[in-house]
Amino acid sequence: MALDLPLSQLLPADWREGRFLGRIATQAGPTPILVEGGIAYDMSRVAPTVAQLVERLPLNAADGVALGSLDALADPLLSPIDLQCVKAAGVTFATSTLERVIEERARGDAGKALEIRARIEERVGGSIRSVVPGSVEAEALKELLIADGLWSQYLEVAIGPYAEVFTKAPVLATVGALEQIGVRSDSTWNNPEPEVVLLVNAAGQAVGATLGNDVNLRDMEGRSALLLGKAKDNNASCALGPLVRLFDDGFTIDDVRNAEVELLIEGPEGYRLEGHSSMNQISRDPLDLVAQTLSEHQYPDGFVLFLGTLFAPTQDRDHEGRGFTHKVGDVVSIATPRLGRLVNEVVTSKDAAPWTTGIAALYANLASRGLLGAAA
């Protein structure tokens, strides 16, 4: 564990009222839990994985084994998902869209960003904030930008008919709250991406939400969009948690649409950066992003979908005009009242705990515990 914080500091303000899914690291192995009425229940005998539990919703807590009050759990939280695919939508907010264009124009050089930012913002900032992706107005704006020599592949997915949806991490590779999060050791320009993340079942229905950190390497992706995989998928580079809040009468997709996400970065040298992301500024509806993910594809174990971020830090850290980049030892906190607080400490991907529990290892563990007959 990278941090030593009580679980109570990570929980939503109304954690005793909501229903949540998650996983804990017991001595026997990873164990799915249901939280209802503030009590955590071991659901491994109902279904040995979160992916299988999701397909059994609505769940009956009485079918599980009560572990006690959630805030008093002795076992640490893991990432709240397991067999789900990990998908992410990019450039879904105007501000972060412009930052992607800036990265592209700067070819990944943070020192060039300030001048380019001013020029791009002056020319397209207002237009891109008001246009509806895929609309007639968006197409007209595209033609104007092409004529001005300002068109970009990022603007294509920001205002065109098709969203950017990519695979962020392999199955089982995500880390949870209080675990270390990794940044490539050869990256010199990077940042966290605080996001709301939807949990979607095999039928394509959004059943809940959690918080996520889709770590971004601005220098890598800025050099070439073909480096997206190198920029996004590295050891420990994707955090989720603390728990998935299930949709019910008290928490719906409208709570996601209107969520206010807070970001805090505390550096080892005393540096402090605060950010704020309003989900109501998203350019595409969350359920439209789910539908685009499902277009001509199936996910029999379900998936999670990062919805993108408004936050793109430009506050200088060490050098004027070079903006923000991570340092080893940064503590990143992402929070919203209904989903809780996701906290991780930054290390390099080389130094983060290696990912060793893949699908084969998980099923070997479940078999040794006699759990594979728990769900078909």
From TrEMBL:
InterPro entries: FAH, Fumarylacetoacetase-like_C, Fumarylacetoacetase_C_sf. One of its GO terms (biological process) is small molecule metabolic process. Pfam families: FAA_hydrolase. One of its GO terms (molecular function) is metal ion binding. Keywords: Hydrolase, Metal-binding. Residues 207-347 form the Fumarylacetoacetase-like C-terminal domain. Gene3D superfamilies: Fumarylacetoacetase-like, C-terminal domain. Belongs to the FAH family. This is Fumarylacetoacetate hydrolase.
